[in-house]
Amino acid sequence: MLQAYWYMTKMRLLTSLAYRFEVFASVGTNLILMLASVFLWKAAYGGGTQQINALSLQDLTTYTVLSIMLASVFVCGVQDTIYYKIREGQIVTDFYRPIPLLACYLADDLGGMLSAMINKVIPLFIFAALFFGIPWPASISGFLLFIPSCLLSYAILWLLSALIGLIAFWVMELGNMGMVKDSIVRVLSGSIVPLWFFPESVQTLSKFLPFMYTYQTPLGIYIGNIGLQDALAAMGVQFIWIALLFILLAVCWKRTKSKTLIQGG
Amino acid sequence: MDAVIEVNDLVKEYIVTKKESGLRGALKGLLFPEKKTVRGVDGITFSIAQGEIVGYIGPNGAGKSTTIKMLTGILHPTSGSIKVCGISPQADRKSVVRKLGVVFGQRTQLYWDLRLGESFELLRRIYQIDKETYEDNLSILTDVLKLHEFIHTPVRQLSLGQRMRGDIAAAMLHSPSILFLDEPTIGLDADAKHAIRLFIKEINQKRGVTVILTTHDLDDVEQLCSRLVVVNHGKVVEDGPMASLIHKLAPHRLLVVELQHPFSDLSHPLAEIIKQDGLKIWYQFEKDRISAAQLISELSQKLPIQDLSVKEPNIEDAIREVYKAT
Amino acid sequence: MGSSIRHYFSVAACFARLAIQRQLEYPLFLFSWLLMIPIQYFSGIWMLKIIVDRFQPLNGWDFPELTFLYGLGLISHGIFVVFFINTWQIDRMVIEGAFDRLLLRPMNVFFQLIASYINFIGLIDCIPGIIIFIYGCQLVGFEWTFLNIIKLLLVLLGGVMIRAALFISLGTIAFWTKRNASMVGFTLAMLERGTMYPISIYPYAIQVLFTFILPIGFISFYPAAEFLNKSSEAFQLPLSFALATPVIGFACFFLSQWIFRFGMKSYESAGS
Known about the structure:
The complex is a heterotrimer.
Chain A: H1 2-18, H2 20-45, H3 57-73, H4 78-88, H5 91-95, H6 101-132, H7 140-170, H8 178-188, H9 200-206, H10 216-223, H11 228-263
Helix pairs in contact in A: 1-6, 2-3, 2-6, 3-6, 3-10, 4-7, 7-10, 7-11, 10-11
Chain B: E1 3-18, H1 22-31, E2 34-49, E3 53-57, H2 64-71, E4 79-84, H3 93-98, E5 100-104, H4 116-126, H5 131-145, H6 160-172, E6 178-182, H7 190-207, E7 210-214, H8 218-224, E8 227-232, E9 235-241, H9 242-249, E10 252-259, E11 271-277, E12 280-286, H10 292-302, E13 305-311, H11 315-322
Parallel strand pairs in B: 3-7, 3-8, 5-6, 6-7
Antiparallel strand pairs in B: 1-2, 1-4, 8-9, 10-12, 10-13, 11-12
Chain C: H1 2-23, H2 30-54, H3 63-84, H4 90-96, H5 99-103, H6 109-115, H7 123-140, H8 146-172, H9 174-177, H10 181-195, H11 204-213, H12 221-227, H13 241-264
Helix pairs in contact in C: 2-3, 2-7, 3-7, 3-8, 8-10, 8-13
């Protein structure tokens, strides 16, 4: 069973590696976003060395560089996969496959993630190190917590994507709602501008939404803006969100599956 | 007769990237892709006169489509020369394509979401067809291809046969003098094939349109073409009148007979038994030495025949068989 | 010549009519775009405001000026998306062999590529652009004189041309590589960062790049700087932008035409 998933992961890894040109272009895109954001922060600090919200320019540079790398690693193809499968009417035949469908999609995305580690993160890291110095973590404990926190972040993002993908089962005509979700996540996850700079009301609201826990939590841990205690608490919240989203996805998935099989797509 | 198409020593080379399997192969391909040159068309020469219907045949990958794409100006040859109505399609594409109608059986030029007639309207503007000619042509095409049944239907709702008729009409609206048909009958039912063959004959006879046809269908060739050009591995291997070539390429027919009960003496002097499976027997015969009708009548006199059928040879297989050596 | 122009116009009009009809076949499909585009762009300007509020003006560009710049860049993006969206599809068309059909028609291939799909959905991109720009004009006290309006229109025209030239040149790469979908993403990212933020925040090398090699700076930055009388900028350019942007736009556009024509020669029709 596990072998079948590994096979899918490997296939995805191989196909992503095969497209040389795509890879270069994608690294280029992320590099541009990275450079632009870092220079924006430089201009915002205006050459001064002051700290704003207890953050130095170096902190924000590290934050931005890591944020871009995370974005290229967090592969959530699932929302597009479900969307296109439904549009092409392929999903029904997929339901009859002997292994759980969502697990297949996850295996596929994990393959994408592994290949992104090799062909996107490594070059981006090298470029970032050349331009701005190596983005060191604030502390070893910060780094050790950063890794598991990233995995939890990915789980949240992936579950969100799968849920959004399911919308297409019910309202096919609305187009790909995944794009709408992505544009909300970009802002409210703090992936571009950390939420610490946002107005108080937005910050309060964000505490009750899952988005903040996808980018800002691991990145805050990495640059040391989130202390040890707060980090553990934040990871607890990540767990809660994963549990909630997982249950929600399981329920929705079951309902859509029975609906689809009854109607025959 | 004047040659409308002249092709001289035409060559087309491709560069293909070799992809290796496995993780190591993928990594290698990422860093050092391996390339090699392949000759898709390898020195083709022929000429076609006004008013001919030429079957351009050969197995898959023989270079048929590549040649047609060079003749119509889509592709640039690596070397060699092409003249269509005396003009090089590469040098003056726009003048050449005005004279051409091209139908790709596997790909439509019609707009999927729009009604058939709307695609025609667009073509009328693109080819600057004046109203009178357009209406004349459309009414003739409508008659022969029975377009009136579906001209106001969105293309996505058409059957394959209807879509193909629509595509052929679209290619003929601007009264081209040369018509290229790339597998026009692929996947169609007998009715639709019949309609399309009738149409091709008619435009050839009444308007003198030169037709170049690639096909996998032996019936198409036999019923339509006066001449065959056979290609294999990018080279012309035969070029001549249809009848003699068909005989050379595919002299045999198969007669499949099913008996009511076992019978001992199955032989016939002019037919060879090539296969037997229970009560089913396959006879191979040369149609020049004995006609199918005669063979059937002779066999039925002595054999207790339950059922029978005559099979045409597959032209692709025949070509591959005959030119295995080259 | 006159009849040829009339010919192209009549075909363009017919293409446009068919494009509207095709897009109206699935009207609900627009819903997700209608949500996403405003979220994306309004949040973009909102985040700029947050940064400027918490920190300081970016290299002397305060929030009203940034809004003006951002809006100007966004409008030209919106117009581009309406008229030139097919330049993003060149790779798909190469893979599917779609240029075959264009080559079989007695018209300019590039014209057919562009004219065959006027993307009315792209007007959605223009709406946030216009709103943000007008808001920016209010904030900076832009004077709507006749001369300024003419200048503005020329700048927009030139800006759209520069964008089109970039995407055409990049799309041409697909004739060799077969794939360049992520090149589109790359260029979009570059254009967004180069036209909606002042390029003076970037290092000298990038400013040179965006001025002389990929003249993105002329789409919105230099024009905005002149409209706003911001003289302390990186390069003092001799020509007034109102002349420079459209001139550069047309020059780039013709250059890209030449590149496209060159690329078409390497077109290998796919499929059987």
